[in-house]
Write a structure and sequence with these properties.
single chain, about 325 residues, Cyclophilin, 2 domains, 8-stranded antiparallel β-sheet, about 35% helix, signal
Amino acid sequence: MNSLPAFLVSVLFSLQAIVCCQAWSPHQSVAGRIHRHVKTSWSINLKANANGNTMDEELWDNDQSFLPSRRSWLLQSAAALTVMAAPTFASNAATSDAKVTDRIFLDIKGLGSEGPKRLVIGLFGNEAPQSTSMLKQLVDSSKGLPAPCKPKAERTLQKEQLEANKVYNTCIEAKDKGVNYEYSQIWRIIQNERIDVGSVSGKFIAREYPNWQEKENNQLLHDAPGIVSVRKGNDSGFGFTIYPGGGSNAVQALLDEEHIVVGRVENLELVQELNQVPVIQSSKVNYMGLTGGPTTKSAPTRACQYGGPMYCNENKPLIKLSVMNSGVL
């Protein structure tokens, strides 16, 4: 009778015992259980060979009353291996199943000459209640999202200190008005990876950023074009990100890790139009110098200096894309 290699038989037998019989401590790792049983089987196999017998003979001939037929035993072993090999993941809900509880809009100017185009977003108020509430306040130009002023910056040079004082005083004068998206911009586009919306206008650049967080992670992923999310924490500004689709698994995984999915865009054709907008590829290039202009780079703009990286040039659209109006539908 033909037989399987002794070591393979012993491993299959051990794995079947692990899965089918459940004879182990619940606190022991799967890897540890497999290692222990394979090691034991290897030891048994060596002893059997030393005695002049093969594991096949011991399995199939010496104890037929204990073992099932070879065919049924192999089928059970294959099933056991399938169970052992099946990976386990945290349950992630598909965004297509998430319920839209609220709808907001942003009218974007700069795409063509026919006037602003309306971006409509459905928000997942059940999965991201806090973020949904904050976005609804940000699109409300009459009230906005309350946000205190940043502390006054201290500069070494007198000229820079005067500028810092001016920015701070302007913020204090308008501190009672909440931050909103009116005249904010789409400030970064990385094709197929992200479209970043909501760099607020100058009167709001000195405000403290909100803390984007949820009491419970909603497990929603960037699994389709048009997914809208906000970056976790308080260093990402007042805006949000649209995933245009087509990004690598690594891009999606990074967004899933760092962002909270809060909704999805309804009109995907506008998302694809934004995704194709040309951008500045490197802020290190002096474009004016290349065309015969000044060869020295200018100092950072006020928005870049006080508002943070989102107001600087890398991946900035070459055409100005502004939010002219926004609200709740």
